[in-house]
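Table S2 (text version). Query chain:
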Amino acid sequence: MEIGSTTKKKKRVKMLKPSQIINKSREYIILDGRIGESLGNIELGTKIFITGRSFSGKSSFITQLCKEFAKKGIKIDYNNHEEKGGDASTVKKKIELAGIDKDFDNKIRFYKAPLLCDEEQTFDEILSRKGSAGFAILDSLQHAGMNKKEYIRFTNKFCNPKKKKIIAFVSHWEKNDFVTHVKHDCDIKLEAMNYIVYVESRMEGATNKPIVIYEEGAKKAWGKKYNSVVNGKYWPGKKK
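Corresponding C-alpha coordinate output:
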Protein backbone atom coordinates (compact mmCIF):
# COMPACT_ATOMS: atom_id res chain seq x y z
CA MET A 1 0.00 0.00 0.00
CA GLU A 2 1.35 3.43 -0.96
CA ILE A 3 2.23 5.97 1.75
CA GLY A 4 -0.63 8.36 2.37
CA SER A 5 -3.29 6.15 0.75
CA THR A 6 -6.42 5.20 2.67
CA THR A 7 -8.66 2.16 2.54
CA LYS A 8 -12.42 2.40 2.78
CA LYS A 9 -13.78 0.82 5.93
CA LYS A 10 -16.04 -2.08 5.04
CA LYS A 11 -19.56 -2.36 6.39
CA ARG A 12 -19.77 -5.09 9.00
CA VAL A 13 -21.93 -8.14 8.35
CA LYS A 14 -24.96 -8.26 10.62
CA MET A 15 -24.73 -11.23 12.98
CA LEU A 16 -27.93 -12.76 14.37
CA LYS A 17 -28.47 -14.95 17.41
CA PRO A 18 -30.94 -17.86 17.15
CA SER A 19 -33.28 -16.13 19.61
CA GLN A 20 -33.30 -12.97 17.46
CA ILE A 21 -34.45 -14.96 14.44
CA ILE A 22 -37.10 -16.81 16.45
CA ASN A 23 -38.47 -13.67 18.11
CA LYS A 24 -38.32 -11.41 15.04
CA SER A 25 -41.60 -9.61 14.30
CA ARG A 26 -42.89 -10.75 10.89
CA GLU A 27 -45.68 -9.61 8.58
CA TYR A 28 -47.69 -12.04 6.46
CA ILE A 29 -50.33 -12.05 3.76
CA ILE A 30 -52.80 -14.93 4.17
CA LEU A 31 -54.82 -15.52 1.01
CA ASP A 32 -58.24 -17.19 0.93
CA GLY A 33 -59.34 -20.62 -0.26
CA ARG A 34 -57.23 -23.35 -1.82
CA ILE A 35 -54.58 -20.85 -2.95
CA GLY A 36 -54.08 -19.58 0.58
CA GLU A 37 -54.00 -23.08 2.08
CA SER A 38 -51.53 -24.35 -0.48
CA LEU A 39 -49.10 -21.40 -0.46
CA GLY A 40 -49.26 -20.80 3.30
CA ASN A 41 -48.64 -17.55 5.18
CA ILE A 42 -46.76 -15.41 2.65
CA GLU A 43 -44.16 -13.33 4.45
CA LEU A 44 -43.60 -9.83 3.09
CA GLY A 45 -40.45 -9.80 0.97
CA THR A 46 -41.09 -13.28 -0.46
CA LYS A 47 -39.95 -14.23 -3.98
CA ILE A 48 -42.19 -16.42 -6.15
CA PHE A 49 -41.16 -18.45 -9.22
CA ILE A 50 -43.81 -19.41 -11.78
CA THR A 51 -43.22 -21.54 -14.86
CA GLY A 52 -45.15 -23.68 -17.32
CA ARG A 53 -45.53 -24.41 -20.99
CA SER A 54 -47.62 -22.22 -23.28
CA PHE A 55 -51.37 -22.82 -22.87
CA SER A 56 -50.83 -24.50 -19.49
CA GLY A 57 -53.03 -21.97 -17.66
CA LYS A 58 -50.03 -20.16 -16.17
CA SER A 59 -51.09 -16.58 -16.87
CA SER A 60 -54.71 -17.37 -15.95
CA PHE A 61 -53.50 -18.50 -12.54
CA ILE A 62 -51.37 -15.37 -12.14
CA THR A 63 -54.45 -13.25 -12.84
CA GLN A 64 -56.36 -15.19 -10.16
CA LEU A 65 -53.44 -14.64 -7.79
CA CYS A 66 -53.61 -10.90 -8.47
CA LYS A 67 -57.27 -10.89 -7.47
CA GLU A 68 -56.57 -12.72 -4.20
CA PHE A 69 -53.87 -10.23 -3.23
CA ALA A 70 -56.12 -7.30 -4.17
CA LYS A 71 -58.89 -8.69 -1.95
CA LYS A 72 -56.45 -8.31 0.96
CA GLY A 73 -55.96 -4.63 0.16
CA ILE A 74 -52.59 -5.10 -1.55
CA LYS A 75 -51.70 -2.99 -4.60
CA ILE A 76 -50.55 -5.06 -7.58
CA ASP A 77 -48.33 -4.15 -10.53
CA TYR A 78 -48.34 -6.60 -13.45
CA ASN A 79 -45.34 -5.78 -15.66
CA ASN A 80 -46.31 -7.79 -18.74
CA HIS A 81 -43.77 -8.03 -21.55
CA GLU A 82 -45.88 -10.66 -23.30
CA GLU A 83 -49.40 -10.58 -24.78
CA LYS A 84 -48.95 -7.11 -26.35
CA GLY A 85 -47.77 -5.59 -23.11
CA GLY A 86 -50.81 -6.62 -21.09
CA ASP A 87 -53.77 -5.26 -23.07
CA ALA A 88 -54.33 -8.06 -25.59
CA SER A 89 -57.75 -9.70 -25.96
CA THR A 90 -56.28 -12.79 -24.27
CA VAL A 91 -55.53 -10.71 -21.16
CA LYS A 92 -59.06 -9.28 -21.27
CA LYS A 93 -60.49 -12.80 -21.23
CA LYS A 94 -58.34 -13.85 -18.24
CA ILE A 95 -59.36 -10.74 -16.29
CA GLU A 96 -63.03 -11.49 -16.92
CA LEU A 97 -62.67 -15.19 -16.03
CA ALA A 98 -60.97 -14.24 -12.75
CA GLY A 99 -63.92 -12.02 -11.88
CA ILE A 100 -61.87 -8.82 -11.87
CA ASP A 101 -64.00 -5.76 -12.64
CA LYS A 102 -63.84 -1.98 -12.22
CA ASP A 103 -63.95 -2.38 -8.43
CA PHE A 104 -60.31 -3.50 -8.70
CA ASP A 105 -59.19 -0.49 -10.76
CA ASN A 106 -57.45 1.13 -7.80
CA LYS A 107 -55.65 -2.09 -6.83
CA ILE A 108 -54.34 -3.73 -10.02
CA ARG A 109 -52.31 -2.08 -12.78
CA PHE A 110 -51.10 -3.65 -16.03
CA TYR A 111 -48.21 -2.13 -17.94
CA LYS A 112 -44.99 -2.84 -19.81
CA ALA A 113 -42.00 -1.17 -18.18
CA PRO A 114 -38.36 -1.75 -19.20
CA LEU A 115 -35.75 -2.91 -16.72
CA LEU A 116 -33.12 -0.48 -18.01
CA CYS A 117 -33.91 2.64 -20.04
CA ASP A 118 -32.97 6.32 -20.27
CA GLU A 119 -36.15 7.40 -22.11
CA GLU A 120 -38.89 5.56 -20.19
CA GLN A 121 -39.65 4.99 -16.54
CA THR A 122 -38.22 1.63 -15.47
CA PHE A 123 -39.77 -1.15 -13.38
CA ASP A 124 -37.25 -0.32 -10.66
CA GLU A 125 -38.27 3.35 -10.62
CA ILE A 126 -42.00 2.55 -10.48
CA LEU A 127 -41.54 0.20 -7.51
CA SER A 128 -39.30 2.74 -5.75
CA ARG A 129 -42.04 5.35 -5.52
CA LYS A 130 -43.81 6.04 -2.25
CA GLY A 131 -47.02 4.02 -1.95
CA SER A 132 -46.04 1.68 -4.79
CA ALA A 133 -47.34 -1.87 -5.22
CA GLY A 134 -46.76 -4.47 -2.52
CA PHE A 135 -47.07 -7.36 -4.97
CA ALA A 136 -45.46 -7.17 -8.42
CA ILE A 137 -45.15 -9.61 -11.31
CA LEU A 138 -42.48 -9.66 -14.01
CA ASP A 139 -43.78 -11.61 -17.02
CA SER A 140 -41.49 -12.94 -18.25
CA LEU A 141 -37.82 -13.05 -17.24
CA GLN A 142 -36.87 -13.84 -20.83
CA HIS A 143 -38.98 -11.23 -22.64
CA ALA A 144 -38.03 -8.50 -20.16
CA GLY A 145 -34.35 -9.33 -20.70
CA MET A 146 -33.45 -9.88 -17.06
CA ASN A 147 -30.15 -11.62 -16.30
CA LYS A 148 -28.67 -13.17 -13.16
CA LYS A 149 -26.79 -10.04 -12.09
CA GLU A 150 -29.86 -7.84 -12.52
CA TYR A 151 -32.06 -10.38 -10.71
CA ILE A 152 -29.77 -10.40 -7.67
CA ARG A 153 -29.58 -6.59 -7.59
CA PHE A 154 -33.35 -6.24 -8.05
CA THR A 155 -34.34 -8.76 -5.36
CA ASN A 156 -31.75 -7.44 -2.89
CA LYS A 157 -33.29 -3.99 -3.30
CA PHE A 158 -36.98 -4.88 -3.04
CA CYS A 159 -37.37 -8.28 -1.34
CA ASN A 160 -36.06 -7.28 2.06
CA PRO A 161 -37.41 -6.32 5.52
CA LYS A 162 -37.37 -2.62 4.58
CA LYS A 163 -39.05 -2.60 1.15
CA LYS A 164 -41.14 -5.75 1.86
CA LYS A 165 -42.11 -6.32 -1.77
CA ILE A 166 -43.50 -9.69 -2.80
CA ILE A 167 -42.24 -10.28 -6.35
CA ALA A 168 -43.34 -13.05 -8.74
CA PHE A 169 -41.00 -13.95 -11.59
CA VAL A 170 -42.58 -15.74 -14.54
CA SER A 171 -40.32 -17.93 -16.65
CA HIS A 172 -40.61 -19.74 -19.95
CA TRP A 173 -40.49 -23.53 -19.80
CA GLU A 174 -36.73 -23.90 -20.08
CA LYS A 175 -33.75 -24.92 -17.98
CA ASN A 176 -30.49 -23.01 -17.91
CA ASP A 177 -28.18 -21.59 -15.25
CA PHE A 178 -30.18 -18.38 -14.81
CA VAL A 179 -33.63 -20.00 -14.59
CA THR A 180 -32.30 -22.67 -12.21
CA HIS A 181 -30.79 -19.95 -10.01
CA VAL A 182 -34.08 -18.04 -9.82
CA LYS A 183 -36.08 -21.18 -9.09
CA HIS A 184 -33.84 -22.27 -6.22
CA ASP A 185 -33.66 -18.73 -4.82
CA CYS A 186 -37.43 -18.28 -4.60
CA ASP A 187 -39.40 -19.37 -1.51
CA ILE A 188 -42.50 -20.37 -3.47
CA LYS A 189 -42.14 -22.42 -6.67
CA LEU A 190 -45.14 -22.93 -8.94
CA GLU A 191 -45.38 -25.09 -12.05
CA ALA A 192 -48.48 -24.95 -14.25
CA MET A 193 -49.40 -27.93 -16.40
CA ASN A 194 -52.75 -28.80 -18.01
CA TYR A 195 -54.62 -26.20 -15.92
CA ILE A 196 -53.27 -27.37 -12.56
CA VAL A 197 -50.50 -25.75 -10.51
CA TYR A 198 -47.93 -27.88 -8.69
CA VAL A 199 -46.81 -26.09 -5.51
CA GLU A 200 -43.56 -26.16 -3.55
CA SER A 201 -43.76 -23.57 -0.78
CA ARG A 202 -41.49 -22.98 2.21
CA MET A 203 -44.05 -20.70 3.84
CA GLU A 204 -45.39 -21.39 7.31
CA GLY A 205 -48.62 -23.39 7.22
CA ALA A 206 -48.33 -24.33 3.52
CA THR A 207 -50.09 -27.57 2.54
CA ASN A 208 -48.46 -27.57 -0.92
CA LYS A 209 -51.62 -29.08 -2.39
CA PRO A 210 -52.04 -28.67 -6.17
CA ILE A 211 -54.29 -25.81 -7.29
CA VAL A 212 -56.87 -26.27 -10.05
CA ILE A 213 -56.96 -23.33 -12.44
CA TYR A 214 -59.75 -24.49 -14.75
CA GLU A 215 -61.55 -27.65 -13.65
CA GLU A 216 -63.20 -28.64 -16.93
CA GLY A 217 -59.99 -28.20 -18.91
CA ALA A 218 -57.93 -29.99 -16.26
CA LYS A 219 -60.23 -33.02 -16.16
CA LYS A 220 -60.13 -33.31 -19.94
CA ALA A 221 -56.34 -32.92 -20.12
CA TRP A 222 -55.38 -35.25 -17.25
CA GLY A 223 -58.06 -37.89 -17.84
CA LYS A 224 -57.85 -40.84 -15.42
CA LYS A 225 -54.89 -39.22 -13.63
CA TYR A 226 -56.91 -36.15 -12.61
CA ASN A 227 -57.83 -37.29 -9.09
CA SER A 228 -54.26 -38.44 -8.35
CA VAL A 229 -52.91 -35.07 -9.53
CA VAL A 230 -55.42 -32.99 -7.54
CA ASN A 231 -54.75 -35.03 -4.39
CA GLY A 232 -51.00 -34.55 -4.75
CA LYS A 233 -50.25 -38.20 -5.42
CA TYR A 234 -48.92 -37.78 -8.94
CA TRP A 235 -47.01 -35.18 -10.93
CA PRO A 236 -44.81 -35.85 -13.99
CA GLY A 237 -41.15 -36.07 -13.00
CA LYS A 238 -41.85 -35.84 -9.26
CA LYS A 239 -41.38 -38.72 -6.84
CA LYS A 240 -44.06 -39.19 -4.19
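Notes on Table S2: The first strand starts at residue 28 and ends at 29. The two ends are 59 Å apart (CA to CA).
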